[in-house]
Request: fold
Amino acid sequence: MSPVSPAGPVEETTVAPAPDWWQSAVIYEVYPRSFADGDGDGVGDLAGLITRLPYIAALGVDGIWMTPFQPSPQVDQGYDVTDYCGVDPLFGTMEQFESLLSDAHGLGLRVLLDVVPNHCSSEHPLFQAALAAGPGSPERDMFHFVPGPLGTSDDGGSGSASEADAGDPTNDVPPNNWQSVFGGRAWSRANPESDTDTDWYLHLFSAGQPDWNWRNPAVGDYFDGVLRFWFDKGADGLRIDVAHALFKADGLPDSPSTGGVVDGLRSNPQVSDQEDVHDVYRRWRTLAEKYEPHRLLVGEVNLEPSRAARYTRADEMQQAFAFAFVKLGWDPEAWAAVGNELEAARQLHGAAPTWALENHDIVRSVTRFGGGELGNVRARAALVALLGLPGAAYIYQGQELGLPEVDVPVGARVDPMWARGGVCRDGARVPLPWSDDAALNHGFSRAEPAGKASEPWLPIPGGWGTHAIERQEQDPQSALNLTKAALELRRQLWKTEVFTADDGGSWRVEAGNLLICERNEHFLVAVAMGTEPVKLPAGTVLLSAAPLAEDGWLQPNNAAWVLRD
Reply:
């Protein structure tokens, strides 16, 4: 069952071709569920996103990355896919996606989509066919089915998305000791009621997300068809979910560590960063470059910089997120150490880091950097710093507003990671506040015919309207207008070649708390990360996150772009 590409010529994007446009790009991550609700049902959708595309274009970004909108039972909010080449009715139709693509290109925005090649939904037709076919069948070889001793399973079995599989009955022995990223073991019985079907199936995430067996060439052929389908539609690129975890070690041996929630992939060397995975991205890069303009491949590669950079060698993906940077707190020495490690990896493998401070899986930077007013000013400074660093950058929706993490009430939490492992990502996924008026979910929803909108899929906290887009648009000092100013200046510095694709990053800490990233001989980023003002290096300050002191010193928790004399 392979995806079929539409007949006819490849649709060219209307964005001006630029072979290496991604080297300078800033991409805005859209989490469709929480961006804009076009039909008033409380869930964001394609119709809502279409109406709000001008807002994204006005920010000054180069494109959007959309998290999954393909058909899914939504066990993991779309990262459990049943049809890689469709649109879930929850979000709209294929016709609406095509309209969105056309409108985005008309506004000069490129469109990147999410592809999830490590796992699918347990309701995917190929997994259901594997369950029906039984042990030893070719259908089961598309996934990781392994026989084990008979026992009474508590996991729901049969591809169930039940989260009860966190337990480990003593009479149930899975094939190895691997743990799920979401908590509990990474194995569930295929048919727990059967006396003859002793197979277990692997799911590094929830039981509703079985892992594909990438050692079966048919899986690679299947995903080639998926890529062609979206590239033929005109998508400008793909963000590849858990790109380092496709292949598992031969023989599926025990892990030396059982790891823990979130860290499961990094702590288990048997489930990620296998050498075979690089051939997949070489194959995909060849495919992506058969299109004009070339399509972009962006990897979610949660590894140390020296390992992650190998995924962006000249014949593999063009970008991989700098995860070591995403996880930083407010510590100048840690920033400098990670920055220099990323620069060493760039010099070795050639691709500049792809910077981000937030995404849909990470605690919002305002909260991570201290919360409250302290977190607000630090997050502003961090975003200014981010946009001045060498390489591409990604902004997560709401980051430009300075949104904090929300403590979602326990009864309203839907993240499967919360149910299985006690970690919740819902706080970064609360719907955007478009209006300071609480009506229609602070402007997130459009009214239904009855004149009201349904409750949003995640509750909106009190006071959310203080962060509203319409309010910030009217405030010259807002986080939103600071973001716009930084993006416009960044664009001008690329045009005038103050910024170039050859720039690196030389990082250091001066005076104990002044973080410096010297991008090139003409430009540096400075961040005051201590409690005392610091003197800036000589030069002209082009931009700062907050006003400078009268003597030109940089106040604590402020950042500046400096053009060297």
Observations:
- The CA atoms of residues 183 and 422 lie 8 Å apart.
- The longest strand covers residues 514-520.
- The two ends are 62 Å apart (CA to CA).
- Residues 332-349 form the longest helix (18 residues).
